Amino acid sequence: MTSEIKEKEQFEIGVVGDTETGSIEVYDGEIKNVKSQQLEGTEHAVGLDLFQEVLDSDLKYDDKEYSKIRRKIDTWLLPVLCITYMLQFLDKLSLNYASAYSMKEDLGLVGNEYGNIAAIFNVGYLIGSIPANYVIQKLPVAKYTGVALFVWAILLIGHIGATNYSSMMALRFLLGLMEASISPSNMMMCAMFYNKREQPFRMCTFLSMNGVATMVGALLAYGLGHATNTSLQPWKLIFLVFGIMNLVWSAVFLYIAPDSPANAKFLTHEEKLKVIDHVSKNQMGIKDTKIKPDQFKEAMLDLNSWILAFIGLGCGVINGSTSNFISSLIKGFGFSGLNATLLQLPTGAIELVVVFAAGMVALFTNKNVRVILLFLTCIPTLGALIGIRLIPLSEKWSLVGCCWLLYIIGGPVIMCWVLINVTVAGSSKISTVKIVWFIFYTAGNICGSKIMYANEAPRYDSGMKGLITCYSGMMFLCIVYYFLMYYRNKKRDAEYGELTPEDEKEGVINGFKDLTDFQNQFFRYVY
Fold this sequence. Notes:
Elements: H1 3-9, E1 15-16, E2 19-20, E3 26-27, H2 48-56, E4 61-62, H3 63-99, H4 103-107, H5 113-138, H6 141-157, H7 165-179, H8 182-193, H9 199-207, H10 209-224, H11 234-256, H12 269-279, H13 293-301, H14 303-332, H15 337-342, H16 345-364, H17 370-376, H18 379-390, H19 396-404, H20 410-423, H21 427-450, H22 461-496, H23 501-512
């Protein structure tokens, strides 16, 4: 991380949302004067003992000291999230890479059966996302995710035993079921260790690993496609190699990944106190393990949940189409299977740069830019889709260039996750909003893999029209969302007045009481 970023992040201390609490040279545990008895009703809060110790102690540290702790978290936790996300995205791309070789012929796939295999993964993901979000709220998140990693690695290796359409359908369904926990768990772990200003950059960093996965996967698939003196076909080697990579990483993950700041091996006891104090400024606590039905109801009645869910639906349709059919698109423009695989390298590089850049903008900008970034990252891909529909087939390199822009969908996806993390409070409410979002996103993935009709190759006109409609709808919803958040903040300021330092202290306590953003009058939306 550059010194410029470190200097920028020094100003994050003392900031709740985008409301500046003043120039603070010494971070002296602003909440330490709050009496312990105000913590009634927090018995299910993770890290409560440490938070209690923060309240009862004279905790002092300056900006420079906390920047060292942040760097330590970035050194230990962020690479774990990045590698995990890269490997699970390789799993998703494995079917796309395998389709560039003889998989369809070897399994006897005809008509839209390949599309069905692509879709069934998302059916499993949809079903798995409902319990997964509540399970990671109840159980130690890192341990649960590590076990899930191990199981899906075994399932991926099991793909080499598929002999027909039915067996591949079963394996893809189970793989989707197990992978449903990875994105929510990464979001939760990020929220536990970083404040609202720090989260977008970190979340964009680990999601930008999708771009790295695309490049690494394309190179591996290209190399494995040249393997001739083996007993396994190239498409089976892809599943085997990707599966072994996940299997090895599952052991590393279980050893390194922390369940919360309270049991992070890489932090000293004093550093844990400072992290708890720092993150508590989010007014969301760390995590509350009690499932609360009233928060479920509130989430279902919150317009915030549904706007994000419908944006997620659009993201899913786009992702389901591009991640499973980009090889078919490029092959249709006149390239061989091997070259179609290799030509996906730039898609990964573009996604890496765009998503990482979005995180940098969010980090270096004090204002509410997250929804604006979501809107802006839709524009290049919308133009690319129009290009695929209109550019003559004779201009195959221009068409391939349009395909390279399709993976920018990672930008809107991660901004949705950031918005969930910073605009929703209450552990059960957050879990519910995530469930709704991932249900819509996964349903979109299913639809996306079904609107690409084989008889419409190479342009897949119905699919392109559907994706253009999705992007247009998402951009409209971004505008609605921006003004909804703006109105809510203005209404709260009018009712309760602008936040004072004392209000912010009370808001921190409310966060550990697991109050929702509706219940906590001191909560302000960051968007």
